[in-house]
Amino acid sequence: MDDTRDRLARCFAAVFPSLPVDSIARAGVSNTEGWDSVASVTLIATIEEEFGIELDIQDLAELISFEKILDYLQQNPRKAGH
Q1: Residue 35 DSSP code
Q2: Partners of 38 in the beta sheet?
Q3: Domain ranges across the chain
Q4: Residues 14-26 as b or e (16 or more Cβ within 10 Å = b)
Q5: Which among 28, 45, 74, 82 could bridge 65 via Cys, Cβ 3.0 to 4.6 Å?
Q6: Is the pLDDT at 16 greater than 90, yes or no?
Q7: What is the per-residue pLDDT across 42-62, written as a single tens digit (0 to 9) for each?
Q8: Which residues pair with 28 in a beta bridge?
Q9: Looking at domain 3-75, what is its CATH homologous superfamily?
Q10: What's residue 57's pLDDT?
Q11: Which is more confident, 57 or 73?
Q12: CA dist., res. 6 & res. 56, Å (int)
């Protein structure tokens, strides 16, 4: 795993502690128990704190899975603290 993936996985583990580690990479709104609006806000806040960034409000609706968030962070390296 690269650094961005590792850091994002830690964010998911913090917000979804009952999610098995081997399921984090497949986590999404539709398949992760407890991923509701409160969990979304908590996850975004956790990611912002971990990466020292502020996510664009218009992008939040698209950030609905581990892979989509990882892609976003990798496509926007300055936002991911790189």
Answers
A1: -
A2: none
A3: 3-75
A4: ebbeebeeeebee
A5: 28
A6: yes
A7: 999 999 999 999 988 888 899
A8: 65
A9: ACP-like (1.10.1200.10)
A10: 83
A11: 73
A12: 22
